[in-house]
Specification:
The chain is of the alpha/beta class and 329 residues long. It folds into three domains: 104 residues, Rossmann fold; 53 residues, Dna Ligase, domain 1 (2-Layer Sandwich), CATH 3.30.1490; 122 residues, D-amino Acid Aminotransferase, Chain A, domain 1. It has eleven helices and 15 strands. The strands form three sheets. Strands 14-13-10-11-12-15 form a six-stranded antiparallel β-sheet. The longest helix is centred in the N-terminal third of the chain and has 14 residues.
């Protein structure tokens, strides 16, 4: 059972969690990691590490296929948003090699890639979402400050801003590319890690409140449980449909969740859910390897468990960095 992670970057904890899952299941297999940067820390954790072209390069898929053939890859997980449409568009090419993809269907790409399409999706399935406008829908009669602006195709919280008045709105509408404008909600933000298998069956849901975020990823947080959030998450995962892991964001307002976006991949804060008792890597590996495993009831995790993160370091010689780009091991 060999698995490949794309754009591994700093996801050291995630790869370590999968290694622990292999041991726990007594399952043989390799962890293969790819990235464009030979200094990506998670490359050091993998059994095999490869440097690849940028995902928008015409050489990306041929290089990925070469790696998959060589390492006999069974399953691919994307770890950043830009990789998802490329993998989904090339699903049949990769599946012809016998590879399974933890990637949403092509028909669902617009829903997760475009925040305005996400909003329409939430409305369609009856999930609450913040009041939102596009720039050409704004007039002085339909807005109330403060507002929140972000790119429709953005990720990692880049180019997101609070807007306090009309002059700021006029500026940021021009500054933020292809923006969506939403009401500014001051309540706590809750990230929900939803684990599905590759047949879209829901295995687990863990909710965690963000306390502090760095570079778009949680650095401090705590597990929470709210039945209403869990039920909406089930509806979102089934309607999408989710394939493999997804994360769903919501913000609390007057004790009700308002859902804002979907990321069709493992969330950066997944290690908190694992520590709270939901071993998502183990659940997915067992399911895809055809092993019998008890799936705990949805919501059966430790509430009130905190995560607080710190930096660690790897130190590489010049020869180590150079070897990352080699196809020979």
């Amino acid at each position: 059972m060999n698995i490949l992670f794309t754009s591994v970057g700093r996801r050291v904890e995630l790869l370590r969690a999968f290694r622990c899952a292999y041991r726990s299941l007594n399952l043989d297999g390799l962890i293969i990691a790819i990235d464009i940067d030979p200094l990506a820390p998670a490359l050091k954790i993998a059994d095999r590490a490869y440097i690849v072209p940028k995902v928008n390069s015409p050489e990306y898929i041929p290089k990925l296929m070469k790696i998959c053939r060589k390492e006999r890859v069974n399953l691919i997980f994307p770890l950043i948003d830009p990789d998802i449409p490329v993998l989904s568009e090339n699903r049949h090419t990769l599946e012809d090699l016998g590879i399974r993809l933890a990637v949403i269907p092509k028909e669902s790409l617009e829903i997760v890639n475009d925040k305005w399409a996400t909003r329409r999706f939430f409305h369609k399935i009856g999930v609450p979402t913040p009041f939102s406008l596009l720039p050409d829908e704004i007039n002085n009669n339909n807005i109330m400050y403060p507002l929140f602006i972000k790119p429709r195709q953005g990720s990692a919280a880049k180019l997101t801003f609070k807007i306090n008045n009309k002059s700021e709105l006029d500026f940021f509408i021009k500054y933020v590319p292809n923006p969506i404008i939403q009401e500014f909600i001051t309540g706590p933000e809750v990230t929900n890690d939803i684990t599905c298998d590759l047949r879209s069956d829901i295995l687990a849901i863990v909710s965690r409140k963000r306390i502090e975020v760095r570079w778009g990823e949680v650095s401090k947080g705590v597990t929470v449980y709210e039945p209403t959030i869990i039920e909406y998450c089930k509806k979102i995962a089934k309607s999408l449909p989710a394939v493999g892991p997804i994360t769903v964001q919501c913000i609390m307002k007057d004790n009700l969740p308002y859902f804002t976006e979907i990321n069709a991949r493992f969330g950066g804060g997944l290690p908190l859910g694992i520590a709270a008792g939901v071993d998502s890597p183990k659940l997915i590996l067992a399911k895809e390897a055809g092993l019998d495993i008890d799936v705990p009831p949805i919501g059966s995790y430790k509430v009130g468990l905190y995560i607080t993160r710190f930096d660690d370091s790897f130190f590489l010689e010049e020869s180590d960095v150079g070897k990352m780009g080699s196809d020979s091991f």
